[in-house]
């Protein structure tokens, strides 16, 4: 049986150290992260984004959501109101749904009957409501970034948004950076 010499042991240790450093660098480059750009404000599409997010987070994947344009209406808190808006901002405030309870379906909305039917079926099958999903998402550390430009265009202020523990307001560049670190990106 051949014995490992001291010189061979030092070489092995150097190789192990080099491989450990390389693995660490590769792990840092492509994290186990999912980034989802949520642009639609339809109930079913917000629901899909949340179901996918919760599923990925349950599998220990870091999840980052970027809410932009019409999807931001889902994050408006119906209990909060803001003063000091200009005419256009007030009009957007009136026209946009105020929170997830008022979102429409992308198809078969049927004057508001469709969302009520879906919510009833979800409840019957034990599916979490959107409110419960957002609560669970916060507990799982899912990050929500809200597009600053979209908020400015639609006159939505930070003070009228839901209370969510991992929420930030930032631009598309921030989300592009998040996507670059992600192993998967979705657009809903």
TrEMBL record:
Coiled-coil parts of chain: none
SUPFAM superfamilies: DsrEFH-like
Xref: Pfam families: DrsE_2 (PF13686)
InterPro entries in alphabetical order: DsrE2-like (IPR032836), DsrEFH-like (IPR027396)
Protein name: NADH dehydrogenase
Originating organism: Labilibaculum antarcticum
Lineage: Bacteria, Pseudomonadati, Bacteroidota, Bacteroidia, Marinilabiliales
